[in-house]
Amino acid sequence: MAEAHQAVAFQFTVTPDGIDLQLCHEALRQIYLSGLHSWKKRFIRFKNGVMTGVYPGSPGGFMVVVGAYLSYNKYNQLDPSQGLVAKLGQHIPIGTISPRCQLVLRAVGGVLVGTGLWVSIIFVMRNVLKCLLSWHGWMYVQHGSVSWSAKLWMVLVKVFSGRKPMLYSFQNSLPRLPVPPVKDTCRRYLESARPLMDDEQYARMEGLAKDFEKNLGPRLQWYLKLKSWWASNYVSDWWEEYIYLRGRGPIMVNSNYYAMDFLYVFPTSVQAARAGNAIHSIMLYRRKLDRAQIKPVPLCSAQWERMFNTTRVPGAETDVLQHVNDSKHIAVFHRGRFYKVWVFYDGRLLLPREIEQQMDRILNDQSEPAPGEAFLAALTAGARTPWANARVTYFSRGKNKQSLDAIEKAAFFVTLDDTQQRYDAGSPVASLTSYAKSLLHGQCFDRWFDKSFNLIIFKNGTMGLNAEHSWADAPIIGHLWEHVLSSDPKMSYTEEGHCCGEPHPNLPGPQRMQWDIPAECQEVIQSSLSVARTLAEDVDSHIIPFSDFGKGLIKKCRTSPDAFIQIALQLAHFRDKGKFCLTYEASMTRLFREGRTETVRSCTNETCAFVRAMLRDETCLKLLKDAAEKHQSLYRLAMTGMGIDRHLFCLYVVSKYLGEESAFLKEVLSEPWRLSTSQTPLQQVELFDLVRHPEYVSSGGGFGPVADDGYGVSYIIVGENLINFHISSKHSSPETDSHRFGGNIRQAMLDILALFQLDKKSNK
Predict the structure, then answer these.
(1) What distance in Å separates the CA atoms of residue 47 and residue 255, rounded to the nearest whole number?
(2) 21 by DSSP, 3-state: which?
(3) By C-alpha distance, which of 722, 723, 740 is closest to 731?
(4) Which of 7, 96, 308, 655 counts the most CB atoms within 10 A of its CB?
(5) What percent of the chain has pLDDT over 90?
(6) Which residues have a Cβ under 8 Å from the Cβ of 263 and sit 6 or more positions away?
C-alpha cells in the first residue's frame, strides 16, 4: 500500500555556514487550512451558543424590539433612557456635557432599557414554553381524534418555539423530571408484583413495602427531593455511573447493541465503496450536529453531545467517558492491523470516492500485524478491570500510547470485516442469525467496543453498527443510522459499484498504527479473548422478519401497535415457559431535561387475565382491550416521570450513601428481568418513501439477553406491513430457546389478530 505521507513543516540542518532552514510550503498550507477549519468551527459553536442562550429570541428580534422602543419614544418625544441619564446627572454634572453627547447618552440608555425589555420578553416566552412542555394531556387523547385542548397546545408550542429552533434550543425550556411520592411508587410496585407472586409472597412483600413507606422511605425521599431541586435530573448521572460505568463485566453482549443494514436492498458489493459513502454520510451528519442543524423536537437533546469523538475508558473501579471537542480522523481495523485515516484534506471533508480510495489502500495492504496487535481489541471485549490494569501498565507511554490515543480520540471506529453477511431469502434464519451475531460480537477482537459506535463494513458491501450504551440510548444512534441509510441511495454508485467521482492524485495514505506489545500483555489479551469468546458462543440469536401483517391491520383493531406486541410477547412467553415473568420495556423520559429511560412493567394483572383466557379458549376480546389500555396507561406514566423503577433505584443509591439497609429496596432491585424488551422507533419517517420503495426497510437492531435464563427482544415496526423481531437468549440455559420463542411470538401475533375477525368484518 502507499505509505503515509509525512508532511514536515520545516527542516533545519547545521552546516559550516550556519543553520540551513528549509520550509515545506505544502505542509505550512495544510497547517493554515487546519487552523482555518478550527476557527470556523469555534465561531459556529460560539454563534450556536448565543442563539441557544437567547432562544426563543434572536438577534433579529433584539434589533426589532430595541428599534421599536427607540422609535416609539422619539415619536412621542419621551426620554428613551427612562430617566437613567437624569439619575446619572446626580453624580456627573450633565450640564458640562455637550447637547450631542447628552443625546448619545440618552440613546445608549434607551438601548439598555430596550435590551432589558427584550430579555424580559425572552424570560416570559421561555417560562410559558416550559409550562406548555410540562403539560402532558396530549398523551391521553384517543387514537384517531384530537381534542381542542391538544390542538390549542400544539398551536401555542409552535408560537412560543420561535421560527427556527436549533437542536439544543429547547434545553432550557424543558421541565425537570419530577420525583414521585413514595406512597404512589410503592402502590404501583405492589400492583406490578401481584401477578408474579402467590398470596403468601405478596403478603410478605406488602408488609415490607408498608414498613418502608412509613419509616425509611420519607427520609430517603427528602434527600432525593433536595437533589432534584439542585441537579438538572435526579436520575441520569447515577444511572450512567452505577448501571453502566461501574459494571466490571464485559460490555460486549451485556451492554453494547447493534443496528442492521437494509433488509432486501444491496446497493453495492464493493466493500471500500460502501465504506466511502457511509463514512462520508456519517461525517456530514457530524457537521450538522456541530452546527446544531439537526431538526429539533421538544425533547431533551443532551445525549447527542457525545455521539462522536467519544470513548469509554476503563478504570479499576469505574470507567469514564472521554470526549474531545473535535477529531479529524477515524480509526480503521482490517485483518489484525489498525490504521489512522484522516477524513479532511485541503481544509475540506474528503469526498466518498476519496474515502473509498483510502479504504482500498488498507484492503490492498499485505503487511502482517505486529506481535499481539491482531487480538488487541479483545481487551475491550473482556472484563473491565484486567483491561484497566493493562491500559495503565502497557499503554501509558511511547508508541502504544500514541496509537491508543489515535483510536480513542477518533471520530468513530471502522471495521473492514473479512466475512460476508447478508439476508438470504433461501436461508433466512441462518443468514440473519449469522448477521446479528457478527454485529453483536464479531470475532471478539475485530471491534473496539469502547468507542461510542463502530461502523462495520462486510466483505460483500453489507454494513451495520455496534454501539456502546453508556453515553446514550438507542434512539440517538438510530437517528444517525436513519440518516446514513436514507442517504445511501441518493449518493449512488457507478455501474461497477464504486462511489461516484474520481480518486485524488495526491491524497496522503492511511497511517499504520505502531505497537510494541510485550509477552505479558499478550497473555492478558488472550485471557480477555477467552472470556469474550465464551460469552459470544453462548448467545442464541434469532431474527424474525414478521410480514404476515403490520401496524396497518393493528390500527384497524383500534389498538396501540406497541400494546398489541407487548401482549403478544406475554402470551408467547407463557406458552414458551408455562409461567409469567418480570418484564422490562424501555420507555424514554426525554420530555424532561437530561432524561434517559424508564421501565414499563408490561406483565400486568390485566395482561395475565387475558393470557389465561386465551389458553382456555374463552372469548377474551374485552380482556385484550383492558390489557392494552392498562399498558398504555403505564407507558404514559413512565414517559411523564411517574414510573416505578428509576425512583426506587435512586432511593436505593441514597440508602447506600447513608449506610442504611432496606430489605424492601434490596429485594426489589435484585429481581431478575427474564424478559427484556425494547422498540426501535422509526423517527424520521419523511426520509423513507415506503409506499413507492417498500424494499428500503431497515432490519432494526438488537441486544443480548439480560438474564442468564431469560430473553432479550427488540422490535421495529416498519411501514404498514412489517415488524422485525430480534430475539436473544443463552444456549447454556435449559429454559430458553430463541428459535422456539420466535415461533411462539409469530403464533401469538396471529392468534390475537384473529380475535378481531377482520376478515368477517371486511366481507360484510
Answers:
(1) 37
(2) strand
(3) 740
(4) 308
(5) 67
(6) 423, 545, 697, 698, 699, 724
- Output the pLDDT for position 126: 79
Q: How confident is the model at residue 69 (pLDDT cuts 50, 70, 90)?
A: low
Region 357-376 average pLDDT: 97
CA distance 152 to 345: 51
Average pLDDT across the chain, whole number = 88
Q: How far is CA 264 from CA 432, 521, 703, in A?
A: 12, 43, 22
C-alpha cell at 715: 422490535
Rounded Cα gap, residues 210 and 663, in angstroms: 12
What is the Cα–Cα distance from 239 to 237, expressed in whole angstroms?
5
- 584-601 per-position pLDDT tens digit: 999 999 999 999 999 999
The answer to whether 306 and 394 are in contact (CB under 8 A) is: no
Tell me the pLDDT band of 34, cut-offs 50, 70 and 90. Answer: low
**What Å distances lie between residue 231 and 299, 306, 319, CA to CA?**
18, 20, 22
Contact 276, 499 (CB under 8 A): yes
Where is pLDDT greater, at 230 or 492?
A: 230
Are residues 128 and 112 part of one domain? yes
Question: Do residues 41 and 290 touch, judged by C-beta distance below 8 A?
Answer: yes
Interaxial angle between packed helices 199-214 and 182-193, expressed in degrees from 0 to 180 and rounded to the nearest 10:
170
Task: Please give the residue range of the domain that contains residue 218.
Answer: 182-242+541-763
Closest listed residue to residue 702, CA positions, set 726, 736, 679, 718: 726
The string of DSSP letters for 400-442 reads HHHHHHHHHTSS-EEEE-SS-----TTSHHHHHHHHHHHHHTT
Residue 421 within a domain: yes
Band (9; pLDDT cuts 50, 70, 90): very low
- 523 and 560 in a common domain: no
DSSP 8-state class, residue 527: H
The pLDDT of residue 15 is above 60: no
1 within a domain of the structure (yes/no)? no
Alpha helices in 134-257 (DSSP H): 148-160, 182-193, 199-214, 216-230, 236-238
| Confidence at 144, pLDDT banded by 50, 70, 90 | low
Give the three cell numbers for residue 504.
485524488
Q: Does the residue 169 lie in any domain?
A: no
Average pLDDT estimate for 648-675: 95
Counted domains in the chain: 4
Residues 380 and 319: beta-carbon distance below 8 Å: no
Catalytic residue among 280, 334, 469, 483: 469
Same domain? For 287 and 392 the reply is: yes
| Cβ pair 651, 238 in contact under 8 A | no
22 pairs with which residues across the strands? 11
How many Cα neighbours within 13 Å face the side chain of 15? 9
Phi-psi label, residue 604: left if phi above 0, alpha if psi -120 to 50, beta otherwise: beta
Contacts with 18 (C-beta within 8 Å, 6 or more apart), sequence order: none
469 has catalytic annotation:
yes
Contact 274, 491 (CB under 8 A): no
State how far the Cα of 237 lies from the Cα of 230, in Å rounded to an integer: 13
Residue 4 within a domain: no
Give the mean model confidence (pLDDT) for residues 256-271. 94
Grid coordinates in use for 344? 479532511
